[in-house]
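ESCALATION

Customer reports they have been waiting on this structure for their group meeting. Please prioritize. Original submission:
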Amino acid sequence: MSSSLKPWPYPRWVAHRGAGKLAPENTLAAFRLGAQHGYRMFECDAKLSSDGVVFLMHDATLNRTTSGHGVGGDQSWHDLAQLDAGSWHSRAYAGEPLLTLANLARFCRHNRYLLNIEIKPTPGTERHTGEVVGREAAALWAGAKADTEAGTEIAPLLTSFQPEALAGAKATAPNVPRGLLLDSWRDGWLAQAQELGCQAVVCNYALWDATTVRQVHAAGMRCLSYTVNDEWAAAHLLALGTDGIITDRVDLFSPA
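Update from on-call: job pushed to the front of the queue and completed.
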């Protein structure tokens, strides 16, 4: 491993959207369940309501994971807060509300959990969403750092598939760590991650091989993978020396 690598403060295992598929994704119920399985770090998706509230939802539209319809970012937080974000998953979670980043931050900070916030802009709002999420993350985790000093609270890791969103986050929250998300290798990906001041490259687990891991480490960044749900894939990534594994299978992989 390259000597240019700085200490990495985040755990290797990250629970996808709170608890994978065991609870309604991106809800407080999911993060509580992931924690019950021993996970200390969670991944979530953040976007903006029409009135600028940062809330958690993966899709651009409300249809799949809530009782609402249409584009989530087109609606006010007052309207979004009335929706049922749990019944789609199972009756046990009926009535579970959508979650704001502010409320999730409170839960994580009180319990000293760590967070990977994927900036998931409504199409057409990439730069603005990155700016707002970055600014809010910096404020919500004020005093937290991206290092491993004893007793130091760790700032969240901001990631996105959208370079414009990461550029926005860099502008408003330069000290909050960033990671570039990739679903395929493209020309200039490493240079782009460096230009955005990223501390990590986060990609589809099938993309990693010894060469790409070595390239990223040599550039002083860490290698993270999504979404790893099979033991053979996890074993392969560990053998390659990657640094983080995002999984739905909080019931299969022990994060200890």
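Sent to customer with the following note: The chain has eight helices and nine strands.
Escalation resolved.
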